[in-house]
Amino acid sequence: MYKATFEVRGMTDLMFGKATSSPRRDDETYEAHERRVWPEKVPVTADGQCYVNPFAVTNSLVEAAKWLKRKVPGERGAMFGKRFQCGVSPGDKVLLFRADGKPATLDDIEPLMLFVPSDGKHGGPKRVERIFPTLHEWSAKGSLLVFDGKISQEQLHDHLVCVGQYVGWGAMRVANGGINGRFQVVDIIAAELAEA
């Protein structure tokens, strides 16, 4: 078992699309509601720093495993997807930073209004205006706990690189037909942990 601490640098915009829970007021149009609640779409720590949900990171590693289609050594035709799903646990929040290295806050997010399908499906017939909070220049730091001995540090590195190139994070990411959420891996540091 080991802990991997990583740093990535964004190559394309990072868009947020977390569901909001604030109901629309009686006298409020959908557009006015969207303008009022868009900050709720961005995950923010108690001290105001934006972050990527850690489960988005582990889920993206599972998607990368499907993309790479690497076989697990010594297990006939088994692939790494289940290994990443069950054998990797997200650490704390994946904190976001601006290009200058300072913590990214809501002040750094642009509320980008787009005309998109109302059901969220590509090519949907009915379109509505939606705000997608966007961070243009960013980096992120986070950690993962790797319990599965078959996931070597090299495999983890290669799969995280694949996430950055072919999967991405956030709304309108590459894996969903978008162009956002791409990044390059700056560093991964692994430290072995004592078995409990």
How many strands, what sense, and barrel or not for the largest sheet?
A: 6 strands, antiparallel
Helix content: 10-25%
Q: What is the approximate shape?
A: globular
Q: How many H/I helices?
A: 4
Question: In the CATH hierarchy, what is the class?
Answer: Alpha Beta
- Radius of gyration, CA atoms, in whole angstroms: 18 Å
How many structural domains does the protein architecture include? 1
Named at the architecture level, the CATH assignment is 2-Layer Sandwich
In percent, how much strand structure appears in the residues?
25-35%
What does this structure look like?
It is a single chain. This protein is of the alpha+beta class and 196 residues long. It has one domain: Alpha-Beta Plaits. Helices cover 23% and strands 28% of the residues. It is built from four helices and nine strands; from the N terminus they run ββαβααβββββαβ. Strands 1, 3, 4, 5, 8 and 9 form a six-stranded antiparallel β-sheet that branches. Strands 2-7-6 form a three-stranded antiparallel β-sheet, with helices on one face. α2 (54-68) runs antiparallel to α3 and α2 packs across α4 (153-167).
A few lines on this structure:
The protein has 196 residues and is α+β, with helices and mostly antiparallel strands.
Short key terms for the protein model shown above:
6-stranded antiparallel beta sheet; 3-stranded antiparallel beta sheet; 23% helix; single chain; 196 residues; 4 helices; alpha+beta; Alpha-Beta Plaits; 9 strands
